[in-house]
Amino acid sequence: MKKNLLALAALTLVSGAAFAQSSVTLYGVADVGIGKEAGQKTGMISGNLLNHTTSYIGFRGIEDLGGGLKAGFRLEQFINMENGATASPSSFLGRENRTYGRAANLWIEGGFGQFKMGRSETPSYNAMVAWSVVGDANYSTTLERYGAVGRWARANSQFGYKTPVFGGFSAEVAFVAKGDHDNKAKYDLNVLYESGPIVVGAAYNKIQNAKANYALGAKYNFGMFALSAGYFDIRNPKLDAPLPGGDNLKVAGYSIGGSVNFDNITLAVELQRQRKFEIYNPLVTRKLKKYTEGAVEAKYALSKRTFIYADYMRMENKNNYGVGIQHRF
User: Fold this and answer.
1) CB 237, CB 247: distance < 8 Å
2) Distance between CA 181 and CA 118 in Å, rounded?
3) In the 8-state DSSP scheme, what is residue 10?
4) 3-state secondary structure 197-216
5) pLDDT at site 5
6) CB within 8 A of 121, min separation 6: which ones?
7) Rounded to 5 degrees, what angle do the CA atoms 184, 185, 187 make?
8) Is 105 helix (H, G, I), strand (E, B) or coil?
9) Could you give the 3-state DSSP secondary structure of residue 13?
10) Please, which residues have CB within 8 angstroms of residue 255's CB and are 6 or more apart in sequence?
11) Which of the residues 95, 128, 191, 259 has the least number of beta carbons within 10 Å of its own beta carbon?
């Protein structure tokens, strides 16, 4: 009897250790407020350009395989805080039906870096967010105008690899095969240097038999305040908001930004100006109106997970305002 009890205790300890090496986490963002877009009435906003973030819920799993090797997955679904809707053809996002439209991927990592497969953020998007003073805020006029260096922020059927960090340097490359992308392979990559207060990066993406898009950017954090700048050259756009000219559009420009911190308060300004904005074809080039656009952001932290914010966004000489609250869990 005593031997059986000892065996059972040992088995329990071993099983507990095995389960402790694997975990699944529920997390997400709830973001809702009130705002007014140009030409529209004031109302509640969720998943809107004037929200800081589109609300979502996610599941993240990770397993320690031993020897420094880990495997994991990530599933993230957009949520409308006004009515509980998720991404579907008739939903607030107006996109195709994707239960986990924000992320759905599986990865494995070790000393060699990380290899990922599925729907996830593109290297171009990750680079832009790294050097922007407003990050991936919905009201970023830089992201709204140039996209994730001309493309969508996330890609389906993406094979991705990210290197370890070597002296502050890292690189990320992604590939979408022809069979998953209208018979045209897609390539996307970034190179980043992040060390102390400095972030410097470059992003590049290309569709087979089409012109490439690229961007360069940098940010320096002085402690109480930070400054950033970027340059974008887009020759093959595919943005969330369709622009005139479709794939025959060229848009290039600059961005500058600055932020300052006062205890729980953060103020940020990001401006961008198009240097080139034109539709082209073999016979004629038609120039479009160029704009100076920007966003002003104010945030007050109520805790490490919750903050209230106010934003002003100017696009195409039109004024947009929003006030909201965000909680991360």
Assistant:
1) yes
2) 13
3) H
4) CEEEEEEEEEECCCCEEEEE
5) 46
6) 103, 148, 153, 154
7) 140
8) strand
9) helix
10) 132, 142, 217, 228, 229, 230, 231, 232, 270, 271, 272, 273
11) 95
Are the beta carbons of 327 and 56 closer than 8 angstroms? no
Among residues 252, 227, 33, which one has the least CA distance to residue 139? 33
- Residues 198 and 220: beta-carbon distance below 8 Å: yes
Amino acid at residue number 304: K
Give per-residue pLDDT as tens, 279-303.
877 778 889 999 999 999 999 999 9
Average pLDDT, the chain: 90
Kindly write down the DSSP assignment for every residue of 169-236, as one continuous string. EEEEEEEE-GGGTTT--EEEEEEEEEETTEEEEEEEEEETTS-EEEEEEEEEE-SSEEEEEEEEEESS
pLDDT band of residue 95 (cuts 50, 70, 90) is: low
CB–CB of 54/70 below 8 Å?
Answer: no
Task: Give the 3-state secondary structure of residue 140.
Answer: coil
The residue count of the chain comes to 329
* H/E run at residue 19: helix 2-20
Residue 45 host element (H or E): strand 43-45
Cα 154 vs. chain centroid, distance in angstroms? 8
CA atoms of 135 and 133, how far apart (whole Å): 6
Q: What whole-number distance in Å separates Cα of residue 177 and Cα of residue 183?
A: 8
**Total-model pTM:** 0.89
Neighbours of 25 (CB within 10 A): 10
- The pLDDT of residue 72: 98
Q: Are strands 43-45 and 212-221 parallel, antiparallel or unpaired?
A: unpaired
Under 8 Å CB-to-CB from 35, ≥6 apart: which residues? 42, 43, 45, 48, 50, 51, 320, 321, 322, 323, 324
Distance, in Å, from the CA atom of 254 to the CA atom of 264, rounded to the nearest integer, reads 30
For the chain, the straight-line distance linking the first and the last C-alpha, in angstroms and rounded, comes to 47
Q: What CA–CA distance (Å, rounded) separates 251 from 232?
A: 8
- Strand, coil or helix: what is 11? helix
